Amino acid sequence: MKLEFAALNIPLARCLQTAAVLVGLFSFLLMAQVCTGIMAMLIIYDYWFLYIPYLTWFYFDWQTPEQGGRSVNWVKNLTVWRHFKDYFPIHLIKTQELDPGHNYIFGFHPHGIFVPGAFGNFCVNYSDFKKLFPGFTVYLHVVSCWFRCPLFREYVMSLGTVSVSKKSISHVLSKDGGGNISVIVLGGSKESLEAHPGIYNLCIRHRKGFVKIALTNGASLVPVFSFGENELYNQVSNPEGSWLRTAQNRLLELTGLALPLIYARGIMPYRKPIYTVVGRPIPVQRTPHPTPEQTEQLHQTYVEELRKLFDEHKGKYGIPEHQTLVFK
Fold first, then answer.
1. Average pLDDT over the chain, rounded to whole?
2. What does the sequence similarity comment in the record state about its family (predicted)?
3. How is the chain split among helix, strand and coil, in percent rounded to 5?
4. What confidence tier does 256 reach under pLDDT thresholds 50, 70, 90?
5. Regarding beta strands 104-109 and 220-227, do their DSSP bridges make them parallel or antiparallel, or are they unpaired?
6. Which of 70, 88, 116, 187 sits CB 3.0–4.6 Å from 203 for a disulfide?
7. CA distances in angstroms from 150 to 34, 60, 70, listed in the order given
8. In this structure, what is the dihedral angle of CA atoms 257, 262, 267, 273, given to the nearest 10 degrees?
9. pTM tops 0.85
10. What gap in Å lies between CA 183 and CA 164, rounded to an integer?
């Protein structure tokens, strides 16, 4: 009987791409726990000359994730991220020119399972971001708990991420002269429970904090839709009212983390192209004390622009004409 080793027939480029995505998944799923374990071992075995200087640094550096972070260019230039981008592959599409004299909020949709479109386009230096949007500095806002984890916080900050807190977003958007972009995945962890292939349910009806921050800082709003984000994994059926969704919602309330039950190529996502389309900017007049009516009006305008963006581009990326967005 002749044995065949399929891995030997796989091109080196594809192997490197798979390895790169495994690195990304490890960073997303396990690296925080590993970093916590390392710090615990240093303390247990009394390597005081390592943990005391670091924890002192940690204490005095606590506010950095809310003050623009600390990106490190050589980390964003690591070749592994080029292979990560090419695995799917990930594309960035611009539909309108943006004025680098202004600051912007990019509302990123949908969340999907682990938002590789946001990471691949706005965190590392292998996307077309700098070519398409010259003169801008981009910040991806992520859950604040990541920055409370020793060691891990240094890694995620090095990639250009900052806290998603109100203080952090306001810090980015308050830059005089413009040129800053805050990217916020508005659906959050809750929306990951809606991430099924061919379904486009967005958790945005009650997400209005970003609108208030835009008004307060006079930052223009830009809807961004990442086509293909929901196609990377299958998720076990969890309709509203089911015992599984009830348990998932309860876990989300208790921990702030969702637990979608997913499957694809094992833990690996499917190789599906991702097209992140940046829509038309919505001009926002600076309003230091916005009223509820002003907030609601701008929120409705944003939702309608997001709907138009999806409808205008869905046909290009294989989505049936009858498919619509559902806002929850």
1. 95
2. Belongs to the diacylglycerol acyltransferase family.
3. 45, 15, 40
4. confident
5. parallel
6. 187
7. 10, 13, 15
8. -100
9. yes
10. 9
